[in-house]
Amino acid sequence: MLLSSVSQRQCARLLSRRAFSAQPSSTSTDPSSVEWKLRSKAGRNFIDRLRCTAVGGHGGDGCVSFFRDVFVPRGPPNGGDGGHGGSVWLEVDENESSLSCVKQQLRAPSGANGRGKTMHGAAATDLVVRVPRGTLVREITSDPLAPAEQQSGRGGHNAYLDGLAERVREEERARGAEKKSLFVHYPRWEERNEVEGIRLPPEYTAHLRMLRDPVPLQADLTRHGQRVLVAAGGLGGPGNPHFNLPGDRQPHYALRGLRGVTRQLELELKTIADVGLVGLPNAGKSSFLRAVSNAHPRVAPYPFTTLNPYIGSVDYADARQITVADIPGLIPGAHRNVGLGHAFLRHVERSRLLVFIVDVAGPAPWDDLRALRHELEMYRPGLAARPSLVLANKADVGERARENFERWQRRVSAETPLVPVSAKYRKNILKATHAIRQMLDSLPPPATA
Ligand SMILES: Nc1nc2c(ncn2[C@@H]2O[C@H](COP(=O)(O)OP(=O)(O)OP(=O)(O)O)[C@@H](O)[C@H]2O)c(=O)[nH]1
Ligand SMILES: [Mg+2]
């Protein structure tokens, strides 16, 4: 059996309680159980997938006012412009390791309204949200009429088409009404102002068009400092001096500020590391990461000690650094998300080199390796064919480990390097890190985004 101490079903049941944001469960009081561990700080704070809404700030309204003085009863217009609304940005910060700092509502502040005496409203500051390197941003597009389309039979399809036609008619109606509602009027001038024929400023119409037909957003944030605009702030409304035209020197209207863009987003963190450690639970992945890097993931003699990915960096004598990701253990069925396999596998998906850590003192380490490769291949075809290295860990554990290793070495093909190590007692670690580096250096450099 591949996983002796914890049954597959038990792991799946316990881990399935870890929702998107790793909600703790309340029953267990056994400190070695997965439930207990999920209640710990690390389990609760690590979020690698979430949905949020980004809302750009509203633009401030333009002002309608006129210069007045003792001998100037009908002075020129002097209403200030409204300030622009703040935009929402996502920015990569390599010191962040989780999406836990991202709130569900990302709302940028609104711009201030313009005032008389040509006082323009202040523009709002942008909201910059820091996300970890490797964050994928996707817009969730939802068509409110889509469920009707999915209904079976002709009736459902007709209902969908009728709904679409009605929506188009509604939009046309709104367009006529919208133009009126875009204006701010001088007191008691609503009826007298003839705003239908007025040409809106080009940037204003461009913003309106953008609000009506938003371009779907998709981004992959891979570099420190990289930024993406997820919700543009609304445009401030121009004050009445903008409409001071030869035919009308006393415009009694200005434009309202426009709302910002609103987007429903899904953020997913897919860790970027040079090397991904893959192994069954308890194989010694975290012990290996501790042995080679400055990271200190928890090590304990029971499965699922690690519940979040950890990244450590291996420093070589010539100042070369290699990042290594330790992920929670995989169990058979991980590709079907058993034991939250998907949540873990996404963190090695982008590694250039996979390092399989296998307990060589187990009954059949070669079967463990086959099972791991199978899970990777089923999760994403081609993943198992990624350049890899096998570390036969726990080589210090007596006669059985030595026999297994010798048997295994006779079986493996030349292209799969097999290195015996003892992560716990730090034996043969240099040879392993040397082999990792050699393999990485022989690979083509990573594609830069
Ligand atoms: N004898 C021996 N024990 C080891 C070795 N490497 C790890 N162990 C022990 O194996 C147990 C599990 O080690 P971990 O590093 O937590 O294993 P893991 O693969 O990270 O486990 P999960 O995080 O649960 O997936 C611990 O008790 C370690 O002390 C080794 O080389 N030799
Ligand atoms: Mg671990």
TrEMBL record:
It comes from Coemansia interrupta. It is an enzyme of class 1 (oxidoreductase). GO terms for cellular component: mitochondrion. Signal peptide: none annotated. Residues 273-441 form the OBG-type G domain. Belongs to the TRAFAC class OBG-HflX-like GTPase superfamily. OBG GTPase family. Keywords: GTP-binding, Nucleotide-binding, Oxidoreductase. The lineage of its organism: Eukaryota, Fungi, Fungi incertae sedis, Zoopagomycota, Kickxellomycotina. This is GTPase of the mitochondrial inner membrane that associates with the large ribosomal subunit. Residues 44-272 form the Obg domain.
